């Protein structure tokens, strides 16, 4: 159990504050942020307070600023339709690193059931969830709150259930029974859409459609099932602090609650949920191999009084135990005398280990691998 409101008031008046103890209490409860909400907390514990946070005035006031929405419905038609889609993808990847896709061939009933499955997992009895609670990042299935709990400057108002779905198939019996079937079904749809997207990205780079697939960029799949409980003091914390994704590509399914923002042209811009859409964003590994031609953009999630907010982020990358030690660096076809290589050649495992060690503290992991 976390500190009481009375203990928090002592903190405000300069009394004792044992940060490590607070972190350990949260961790050892194995009930996550949702456990605090269920306990009826009216003030958030100090470990969640983000210093100098101002979410009210940091959002873009220009309603015309929004990430592109790309219709994939005409992708397989003859003529100029595919070329037009590729041009839109190229523009979005160069300017934003984010776009939304509609008519993506994943049925709405599957999307709805996936969100429901994540909600069911997080809202089941804490005794059942506790079986999956772990801080061992090498596990293929685990649940916890904040992967960087002990290193982050401020804890985020979020719990996460994660699973490594590829390249090695995951035994379905390792998944929680309450959402096992839909995770397996949704994964197959995501893999198919991922291959389509990697083809479009390859062509947008002026390469063979199979280029990125042949580089095994679509081989790994790491799924993060996030749960953001309603927060009593959302102005003091964040659901997820500003960060860049670690993989090649992320396919994000979110509900209609909202709260996701991208940092664009020195301001935070709301990503308004679009019905039936999926959000696609590039990760740091994509920026590395494209030698900065495509961008990985900083983004965050606001904490909110309403909720819960539920989202499913599928990162196309291998995890900490890849099947191969394949090395990735700037693609040779994109490197010239005028545009020399900007990054070292590295393995995905090297990148992910550094990313996990540094946590979400506002500095891009790419900085560490610059030449």
> Percent range for helical residues?
25-40%
Q: What's the alpha carbon Rg, rounded to whole Å?
A: 21 Å
Largest sheet: 8 strands, mixed
> What is the number of beta strands?
14
Please render the helix and strand layout as text.
Layout: H1 5-12, H2 19-29, H3 32-38, E1 69-71, H4 81-95, E2 98-102, H5 108-123, H6 126-129, E3 141-144, E4 159-166, H7 180-204, H8 211-214, E5 221-228, E6 238-243, E7 249-254, E8 260-264, E9 267-270, E10 278-282, H9 284-289, E11 299-302, E12 309-316, E13 327-328, E14 346-347, H10 348-358
Parallel strand pairs: 1-2
Antiparallel strand pairs: 2-10, 3-4, 4-5, 5-12, 6-11, 7-10, 7-12, 8-9, 8-11, 13-14
Helix pairs in contact: 4-7, 5-7
Could you walk me through the main structural features you see in this protein, from its secondary elements to its overall organization?
The protein is an alpha+beta fold and 371 residues long. The chain has one domain (51-369): B-lactam Antibiotic, Isopenicillin N Synthase, Chain (Jelly Rolls), CATH 2.60.120. It has ten helices and 14 strands. The chain has helices spanning 5-12, 19-29, 32-38, 81-95, 108-123, 126-129, 180-204, 211-214, 284-289, 348-358, and strands spanning 69-71, 98-102, 141-144, 159-166, 221-228, 238-243, 249-254, 260-264, 267-270, 278-282, 299-302, 309-316, 327-328, 346-347. The strands form three sheets. It has an eight-stranded mixed β-sheet. It has a four-stranded antiparallel β-sheet with strand order 6-11-8-9, with no helix packed on it. It has a two-stranded antiparallel ribbon with strand order 13-14. Residues 3-14 have low confidence and may be disordered. Residues 217-320 form the Fe2OG dioxygenase domain.
